Amino acid sequence: RGHSPQQTVRFLDNEDVAQATVGQSGSLSKLSNPKENEADEKRLFLVVRCLRGIRGDPNRIRSLGGPSGMLGWPLAGDECGLIRGGCLQRFENGVIYYSSSGTFTLPNDVNAAYEGLQGQSGILGYPKARPVTSTANGGGTIYAFQSGSIYSSPAGAFPVFGSLESQYLARGGVAGNLGWPTSGRVCTPMDDCVQS
Fold this sequence. Notes:
Number of helices: 7
Distance between the termini: 48 Å
Helix content: 25-40%
Largest sheet: 4 strands, antiparallel
Shape: globular
Radius of gyration: 20 Å
Strand content: 15-25%
Structural class: alpha+beta
Strand order of the largest sheet: 4-5-6-7
């Protein structure tokens, strides 16, 4: 919010640095002289801002390991004013979404499939639960949304929603004889849809 580099260095000298790096001494030693690495200085400032400003559950970011964890460094500050009062924040390896359903993380491959359906403004709505991992039929992870799911497996990440998901779940879902999705939904001009 308009911090000069000098102000940013002073801001990073407080306890928020330890929180932002989640006790990873490697991160702190790498940034022992932040004036020598302005890019890293700005990135760490974004982590601190993220920890202070993300809506809903700032501890969720710490629990993911901060910049040394699965998300990596933030790419920008949080974006709010989304449909139905939601927010998001983009990181190197994924995106955190906040809405009335809670605060949830999507890795980049799942987020690409999500944004392919217009993200939070599309048919799926916002993420609504933590991902569920299954070992059935080769294994994968299920990401639940307000109006559907994305199934991520070695075959890829594919959304399933509406009547197709209802029929899929009725046949056992990922543990049934259909296994994991291997393609996206394909519909004809007559609105006949298929998915493998």
